[in-house]
Amino acid sequence: MARPTNEPLPPAGAGVWSQRWGQAAEVILRADPEVDAVVRGSDQIAAGLVEVARER
């Protein structure tokens, strides 16, 4: 589902590139069940996100 152009995007995060940081994406996934894509900046962050998504 496309996000309306007048709705602001969530802020970008900054921090240590770790698996724990990827797990923090759980907040995004719970806030919007329509999320169907997430971009991460490293394999470690992506691994944390995948771990959270599998538990979902």
Helices and strands, with pairings:
Elements: H1 19-23, H2 26-31, H3 43-55
Order of helices and strands: HHH
What kind of sheet is the major sheet? none
> How many β-strand runs?
0
Q: Could you tell me the mean pLDDT?
A: 77
Ranges where pLDDT stays below 50 over 5 or more residues in a row are: none
Bin the helical content.
40-55%
Global shape:
globular
Secondary-structure class: mainly alpha
**What is the alpha-carbon Rg in Å?**
12 Å
Strand-residue proportion: under 5%
The rounded distance between the terminal residues' Cα atoms is 20 Å
How many helices does DSSP assign?
A: 3
Key attributes of the depicted protein:
56 residues; 3 helices
How would you portray this structure in words?
With 56 residues, the protein is mostly helical. The protein has a domain at 18-30 and 42-56. Helix content is 43%, strand content 0%. It contains three helices and no strands. The two termini are 20 Å apart.
